[in-house]
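Something for you to look into today, if you have time. Could you write out one complete protein record for me, on any chain you like? Leave the record below and I will have a look.
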Amino acid sequence: MGAKLRVVRRRIRAVQSTMKITRAMELIAASRILKAQQRVEAARPYAIQLTRAMEDVARHTGSLAHPLLEEREDPVRVGVLVVTSDRGLAGSYNANVLRRAEGVIRGVRTRRLEPVIYSTGKKGQSYFRFRGVPLQASWQGFSEVPPYEMAQEIGRDLIRDFGDHTIDELHCAYTDFRSAFTLRATDKRFLPIAPEEVSGERGVPHAEYLFEPGPAQILDALLPQYLITKVYAALLESAASENAARRRAMKAATENAEELIKVLTRQANRARQDEITTEIMDIVGGSEGLTKVSGD
């Protein structure tokens, strides 16, 4: 009986230690969500102004013609950029985005095209390598706090591969952050850029500009920057989603640990009561034995 009590108490201490870790991770993730949200909000004005600048330039060029806008008649390879996390313990966060990516890949194969996989985050890299899927390129080590420099590196590599026909389209699977409680795995086409994204609204008054150099040259510089901004936005949305998912998972783990401790505490109390009852019965039995010996 004493051995059973020791085992239960040892389990209680182990669960309490685990609960301290999960609670600490929950608090850390909660603090990072706010920072991640602030980064997402801070990046939006730049993307909006960049889009407006391209609209003004495109309006002055008369017609949009650029390699990044080119719809290729006979595409062969389609790039799929998958944004995952570097660490686990985030519930179904990675599983959802990888499931979404697999759906995009199946759609590419249905069109009889060849998927070319790009991955950010260790989880995506491990997932595809375990399944023997070759990666065109992968990046890792920044999923929770993605720097703009990494978005530039990724964007430039993707633009280069699109330019030399390594890929003819580019889709991105990532997690859209709506709120701390609403995360949605989604996918969007990044390349070629749809002309309507940069053509602007008709009938809306615009300011008049004098361009130096010409509008076409400015558009040539802005369109790559536009793609990099879209990659950066996907990384920021995914980072906020990762922290929100981790907070939710760690909160659930902490609550489960608390419930398990209650169950184990009841088991320990029951084992202790059984132990005390056994000891009392032994004492009573011994007392009765002494009484009989004295009477004899």
